[in-house]
Amino acid sequence: MSSRRSRRQSASSGITDDQIADLVSRLQQLLPEIRSRRSDKVSAAMVLQETCSYIRSLHREVDDLSERLSELLATSDNAQAAIIRSLLTQ
Amino acid sequence: METPMTAMVSDAAVGTDRRRSGRLRRNKKHRAQLVQREAEEGRSHERWRSELQHKLYSAKLMEALARLRLAGDGGGGGGGEEVRVVPTRGRTVRDAADRALAFAAKGRTRWSRAVLMTTANRVKLKFRRIRAGGGKGRLGVTGAGGGRWMGRKGKGKVSVGRLRGKGSAGVRRKVRELGSLVPGCRVEPMNVVLEEATDYIAALEMQVRTMSALAQLLSGGDSDAAPAAGHGHTSS
To answer: What is the pTM of this model?
Structure first.
């Protein structure tokens, strides 16, 4: 069933192996860890795995930063002063 | 003295030239289409790294954050009416930042549209879906058309290990996992998910950069010399 589905998919939407490989290699360029290793033998599954964990870590970082920002913004006079300051220095 | 718009366009033109030399030999018949698609699609990584985007996003973010009622100041005395907005302060900030990020994407990608539509505007969602049937179709064509062709092979061309047929189970599973991480991509075909993930990662990186610069600024640090921030004092 799955092979039939993938065949039909490729017939109707023209998604080729090459395209997928290209996209994955493009993704690979973005990842910090794999890029530094310079190994040509990276499998697609590993790239995807790294991508997932990278996205998760980015999410975590954004969460931490937003926690920090929320604390910083809670003191209103601090926030207003900083905003005014940044507006002035632009 | 370039306006930001010109800067962006020349950026795209330079990028197009650099890639055109490599691609022309293989895709002669699609040449015109190619150039147009490239300009339209935009190399996501460079787009999200441009200074203009950084400034736009930081301005939007600050505006959104300033509007949020985070402080328990005199205005928001009652906890009754603001219950919706204050589940966790961090969560509100995060949602606002995500919305601003999706807005900065100008709705060209699926994830940005999905993020914008799943905010508190649930009531408007019904009408928006009906009315945006035509509009979203247009945008959808651009997104799908851009996703079907990608011609970027940088100088350091790294080849991925042979895929055992694109429908290989392990790869498919991973792509599904990726699709569940990227908003709005849970049921999309593989190439769409990968394309969206590329853009999403670049956008997230910009979000992290901007927010950390903002946090540094707000914590009263001497961030005037912050290298990556360029928050207040780039003169371009």
So the answer is: 0.61
